[in-house]
């Protein structure tokens, strides 16, 4: 008797402000990086203006003191304001005679600090 079974599932979500990059994919390791690209206004983590500094989360150049000058939550990417928890899927195989397998899953999350300097 011959038999086979195949399952496939694709997970997709919109992430216009982020890019997923596969770092490694071989028999022993699969890894991805998820990098911030830019806001809908075109600013990225390296954007810099000689007077205003980095405007990544700046609401306006013309008004608002420092703590009132951050971009409103409603104007941020939903992935930033709603929390970013990407889903990942991985298919594992083992030799037919294997009774045990060791699987190590590592998830790392990195945060960036954003400082808005306001001088009058």
TrEMBL record:
One of its GO terms (cellular component) is extracellular region. Keywords: Signal. One of its GO terms (biological process) is cytolysis in another organism. InterPro entries: Leukocidin/Hemolysin_toxin, Leukocidin/porin_MspA_sf. Residues 1-117 form the Leukocidin/Hemolysin toxin domain. It comes from the Bacteria. This is NetB toxin. The gene is NetB.
């Amino acid at each position: 008797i011959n038999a086979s079974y195949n399952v496939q599932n694709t997970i997709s979500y919109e992430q216009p402000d982020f890019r997923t990059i596969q770092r490694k994919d071989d028999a022993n390791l699969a890894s991805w990086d998820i990098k911030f690209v830019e806001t809908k206004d075109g600013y990225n983590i390296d954007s810099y203006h000689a007077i205003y500094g980095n405007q990544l989360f700046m609401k306006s150049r013309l008004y608002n003191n420092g703590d009132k000058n951050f971009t409103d939550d409603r104007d941020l990417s939903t992935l930033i304001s709603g929390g970013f928890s990407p889903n990942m899927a991985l298919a594992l195989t083992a030799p037919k005679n294997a009774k045990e397998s060791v699987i190590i899953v590592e998830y790392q999350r990195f945060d960036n600090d954003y400082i808005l300097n306001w001088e009058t």
